[in-house]
Amino acid sequence: MSLTLHSETSLKPYNSFGLNALARHYTELETLADLPALLASDAYRQGPVLWLGGGSNMLFTRDYPGMVVRMATRGIRVIADTDTHIELEAAAGEAWHDFVLHTLEMGLSGLENLSLIPGTVGASPVQNIGAYGVEVKDVISEVVCADLANGGAEVVLPNSDCRFAYRDSIFKHEAGAHLLVTAVRFRLDKAASLKTAYGDIARELDSRGISAPTARDVSQAVIAIRSQKLPDPAQLGNAGSFFKNPIVDATQAEALLARHPALPHYPAGEGRVKLAAGWLIDQAGLKGYRDGDAGVHAKQALVLVNYGKASGAEIWALAGKVRLTVAQHYGVDIEPEPIVI
């Protein structure tokens, strides 16, 4: 067994806010062969247990009283190759952006709009990550899991069983609480079918003089856009977009647009409309707001940042202020994206 169990371990290196919470027990799972031993260990059985990926969607407001297990499995393999597409399986511990770049090097298309999103492959279906008109559910064929309620037995969920929705999946609810994502299978096209209609991408490509982009061109445009708008967690602690774009019914959207015609909005299906949370926060006067070392980023209002010494509790209090202020101004609730401990 290659597992090493640590006690009273700082989680600062393992969360993108850079918060110095302690885990009572900490270990890293580098191979699934060690999973049975992990599940049988006293520390695991005593609980509670937190499974951690890249820590880019996590807010620690306190120490963790149980075991934290960081998924560190690696590996990418081709499991199907046809004239039109390739199906790849990537281990849960693979860094997401590195995996995206790997698919581009293979000449594949489908993930380019999701470039530079922090985190791991294993976290991507849990959150159903998305950006610039694409959600990861669009290219996932299957999710491979370990059933923690059945000794870690392998379970393979087809896309249709994952209950994907906006920033949501079965893995975030009780029905999937016993399932640990161990690998994700992606169906990616050999012939590029690019989505460049999103305004920022179109403008960035145009500024580069690119009229017939490749998947790599789109990826580079997305990287440039995200680098301009979003702070690097290595330089300024953050978890990317802290709030989900709210989805409201058409009647409420119509009333809001009558008062605020510039409010960015997008069809969300079934008579519902998605609103831009960043715009709501900005127009409520909170862009660039700072309370001690907890702040709203000056360039992107969706992002809450740690200027160095903020605690998780202080960042969470700031999130509450932002949420309340938006509700008071617009009658809209903006939900946090990160998992809050």
From TrEMBL:
EC number: 1.3.1.98
An example Gene Ontology biological process: peptidoglycan biosynthetic process
GO cellular component, one term: cytosol
Catalytic activity annotation: UDP-N-acetyl-alpha-D-muramate + NADP(+) = UDP-N-acetyl-3-O-(1-carboxyvinyl)-alpha-D-glucosamine + NADPH + H(+)
Pfam families associated with the record: FAD_binding_4, MurB_C
Cofactor: FAD
Active site: 167, 241 (proton donor), 337
Subcellular location, record wording: Cytoplasm
Keyword Cell cycle belongs to the record: yes
SUPFAM superfamilies: FAD-binding/transporter-associated domain-like, Uridine diphospho-N-Acetylenolpyruvylglucosamine reductase, MurB, C-terminal domain
UniProt entry keywords in alphabetical sequence: Cell cycle, Cell division, Cell shape, Cell wall biogenesis/degradation, Cytoplasm, FAD, Flavoprotein, NADP, Oxidoreductase, Peptidoglycan synthesis
Pathway in which this enzyme or protein is active: Cell wall biogenesis; peptidoglycan biosynthesis
PROSITE patterns reported for this sequence: FAD_PCMH
Domain FAD-binding PCMH-type: 17-191
First-tier enzyme category under EC: oxidoreductase
Purpose of the protein: Cell wall formation.
Family listed: Belongs to the MurB family.
Stated name of the protein: UDP-N-acetylenolpyruvoylglucosamine reductase
Organism expressing this protein natively: Craterilacuibacter sinensis
Gene that produces this protein: murB
